[in-house]
Specification:
Elements (H helix, E strand, L loop, with lengths): L1 H9 L4 H17 L3 H17 L5 H17 L3 H15 L13 H11 L6 H22 L11 H15 L11 H5 L2 H14 L6 H14 L7 H13 L5 H14 L5 H17 L9 H21 L15 H20 L3 H14 L10 H20 L7 H4 L2 H9 L6 H15 L29 H22 L6 H17 L3 H20 L5 H22 L2 H17 L5 H4 L8 H10 L24 E3 L5 E3 L1 H34 L2 H7 L6 H24 L34
Antiparallel strand pairs: 1-2
Protein name: EFR3 homolog Ba (S. cerevisiae)
Family: Belongs to the EFR3 family.
Organism: Cyprinus carpio
Length: about 750
């Protein structure tokens, strides 16, 4: 071997003839078979290849690759592994001269095939697969930086290389490894991951798409989105391996793939969304790229589609026999995953871009009547989902300038939703306002609502109000106070609403209050106290909760102002309440322990054999309508008499009529006031959103009564007898009294 190497170096022009001779010998030995001579020939070729780097090496390489191909085409695993090892050594050599005509297509195909080996012996199968992985790694190294070679990033090659690597990456539990020292050093999965990372790390901007697309196809073809674990692992490898400035390209491909699977099952879409969420966390801050709003638009579109699917029960516009069955709980899981992903994206954005996203989402929330096709329930679900998304975006949002964080174009439509009848929507809006205003992480210090004798234990972070804060309060404070006041008037408010209102008021006092604002806040607290005293229509719990909220807030604000006499007065009132009316303090009202929990009762009854399905639905008194049983009796004169049921109904209608007039006058006054003072968004939120059960009942009664009167008048339409009591003589009738001149009892007339 030393003499042969010396001869080749001395006469490099002979290399091609040496290679041709060795190739001929190796072909003959493989066919015979004489595997010992095959190994000797390959060893000679390897050493010559490592030693010679002259310009004539290209002709020798052709002979070398021909011999490697023969070994890879052999049926014997040992020959395949031998050929692979020789190729890997060749791949690590940096050639001095370029090759214009060399092709590696065969090696890509053959190494990919070896990666999927199904040889019976598990140890040999593992060795063949590992050889295939190393071969693909060698092909990538040899061609990726050689501009004269066929582009390894072409889809025809990537569609073979990437699935082969993913197949082996997926076989972590399926492959049994032998205890030999060779396989103990590195498992097939570890080798595959290292090769996959190397491939992705070499990908340039133009090649990312071709490298990622086969991953998406592989996960589709093998239904791997639903399990989530493997798909998340794959994209974590991708995101950590590629250059950081290319991360947004991967995100865009995932979003496009999510759109392409819009009509697939909810579990598949949820798996893709989960991958997007994990990828967004890894992605560098602010590198989503130039299409930030496009990302959120795609996610919000998926949210809207999921709600549509849940409501219609079909992935198509018109349900048909071939359509897939919609599983509501899976759609709900998908919706939660999309909302979580929106939050993950938002956390990667700088403050100014997050503000744009907030404006974008608030503009997508439908007001009542905007989308008639959705219906009332559809609009409500969309509103809740988008508000939850907005809450995710605002989580952790800290802006030094509150004017830019809450511009009028964002604040007005947001506040309009605090007046919605739906309690969940109002609570979400309060949480969003709290997230934006809380710039020093004080929100959790106001929970639970309680009377604190010394607020220094809360360790509140209080900074002096900036000029922007003062401008914001001067511009928007009255609107904030008004909506807080009106939110307290809502009958459907529960404990969490009052806790959020207290937190919001506390944050305004800590974050945005100057002397003028403090005075206005005290006025608001006293107005809430008057509201609880005068608004008799409110439930008892709500009135007590408002008293407790007012007391706790005045206690907080009195200690923040550090005016001794003010603090003393508040303290005296609170002590009096503790002795006389403890139910007007938060410790007795805004607590969960004094209330019966529906979920716990259902669990206890269910354990004893009761059917608790109906218990999960809250009881609502049903309007059954008034059934009329009209009884008629003719007097001696033939005049029908309407008996008690109809008379009672007429009496009810007379009393209701008075109340309706009073309600109508009050309603008109409120409508005029609202249209004169309220912003447009609030007016839009009210229009068509509320249908009073009382008005429904009155309408039903009036309609029923109209039917009864029509029936009665039809019976009265026959010619009545003469008031004198005379009847006809058989040939004709005497003059009858017209209906409109007859005298009825007052109770029969409406």
């Amino acid at each position: 071997m030393e003499k042969l190497t010396f001869y080749a170096l001395s006469a490099p022009e002979k290399l091609d003839r040496i290679g041709a001779y060795l190739s001929e010998r190796l072909s003959r030995d493989v066919a015979r078979p004489r595997y010992g001579y095959v190994c000797i020939a390959m060893e000679a070729l390897d050493q010559l290849l490592m030693a010679c780097h002259c310009q004539s090496i290209n002709l020798f390489v052709e002979s070398f690759l021909t011999m490697v191909r023969k070994l890879l085409e052999a049926d014997k695993p040992n020959l395949q592994i031998l050929g692979t090892n020789s190729f890997v050594k060749f791949a690590n050599i940096e050639e001095d001269t370029a090759s214009y005509h060399r092709s590696y297509d065969f090696f890509v195909s053959r190494f990919s095939e070896m990666c999927h080996s199904s040889y019976e012996d598990p140890d040999i199968r593992t060795k063949i697969r590992m050889a295939g992985i190393r071969g693909l790694q060698g092909v990538v190294r040899k061609t990726v930086n050689d501009e004269l070679q066929a582009n390894i990033w072409d889809p025809q090659h990537m569609d073979k290389i990437v699935p082969s690597l993913l197949f082996n990456l997926q076989q972590e539990e399926g492959i049994e490894r032998s205890p030999s020292p060779e396989t103990e050093k590195e498992s097939p999965v570890e080798l595959t991951e290292r090769c996959f990372r190397e491939l992705l790390g070499r990908a340039a901007y133009d090649n990312i798409k071709n490298a990622v697309k086969p991953v998406l196809m592989h996960l589709d073809n093998h239904s791997l989105w639903e399990s989530k674990t493997f798909s998340v692992r794959c994209f974590k490898i991708i995101m950590y391996s590629i250059q950081s400035q290319h991360s947004h390209l991967v995100i865009q491909q995932l979003l496009g793939h999510l759109d392409a699977n819009s009509k697939n099952s909810a579990r598949v879409r949820a798996g893709i969304v989960e991958v997007i969420s994990e990828a967004a966390v890894i992605e560098a801050s602010g590198s989503i790229g130039p299409t930030v709003l496009e990302v959120f638009n795609t996610l919000l579109k998926q949210l809207r589609l999921s709600v549509d699917y849940e409501l219609t029960g079909s992935y198509d516009s018109f349900a048909n026999l071939g359509s897939k069955v919609i599983k509501v709980h899976e759609e709900r899981q998908l919706q939660e995953a999309v909302i979580k992903t929106i939050g993950s994206f938002a956390n990667t954005l700088p403050t100014y871009q997050r503000s744009e996203v907030m404006l974008f989402i608030i503009g997508k929330i439908p007001v009542p009547g905007m989308y008639p096709s959705l219906g009332v329930e559809g609009s409500r679900m969309i509103q809740i989902m988008l508000l939850k998304s907005l809450l995710q975006v605002t989580a952790g949002f800290q802006s030094t300038n509150i004017l830019t964080a809450l511009p009028t174009s964002f604040l007005d439509p947001l506040l309009s939703f605090t007046l919605m009848e739906d309690a969940e929507i109002r609570l979400l809006v309060l949480d969003i306002l709290i997230s934006i205003i809380d710039r020093h992480d004080n929100r959790h210090k106001f929970s639970p609502v309680r009377i604190i004798s010394d607020i220094s234990v809360l360790k509140l972070k209080v900074d002096k109000c900036s000029r922007q804060d003062n401008l914001f309060m001067k511009k928007h404070s009255q609107r904030l106070y008004r909506h807080i006041y009106l939110a307290c008037k809502e009958e459907s408010s529960v404990q969490r609403h009052f806790e959020s209102l207290y937190t919001l008021l506390g944050l305004i006092c800590v974050e945005l209050a100057n002397e003028e604002v403090v005075v206005d806040l005290i006025r608001l607290a006293l107005a809430l106290q008057d509201l609880a005293l005068t608004e008799e229509a409110l439930p008892v719990y709500n009135r007590c909760a408002i008293h407790a909220l007012s007391a706790a807030y005045l206690n907080l604000i009195s200690q923040l102002t550090t005016v001794p006499t003010f603090c003393q007065h508040v303290h005296e009132v609170i002590e009096s309440r503790k002795k006389l009316v403890p139910f007007l303090l938060p410790e007795d009202v805004l607590v969960e322990k004094v209330l019966f929990v529906q979920a716990k009762i259902a669990e206890m009854l269910g354990g004893s054999g009761y059917n608790t399905e109906r218990l999960a639905t809250s009881y609502i008194p049903q309007i059954t309508g008034l059934t009329l049983s009209l009884s008629f009796k003719y007097t001696e004169t033939g005049c029908p008499v309407i008996f008690l049921p109809f008379l009672i109904q007429c009496v009810i209608m007379r009393h209701i009529n008075v109340n309706v007039e009073e309600l109508e006058r009050e309603r008109r006054r409120q409508v005029v006031e609202r249209f004169q003072t309220a912003p447009f968004e609030e007016i839009a939120a009210h229009c068509g959103a509320r249908v009073s059960p009382m008005l429904y009942c009155l309408s039903h009664v009036i309609d029923t009564c109209s039917i009864s009167l029509s029936l009665s008048l039809s019976l009265l339409d026959r010619p009545p007898p003469s008031p004198s009591g005379s009847v006809g003589n058989g040939h004709g009738r005497t003059r009858s009294v017209p209906v409109y001149e007859m005298k009825f009892p007052d109770l029969c007339v409406y």
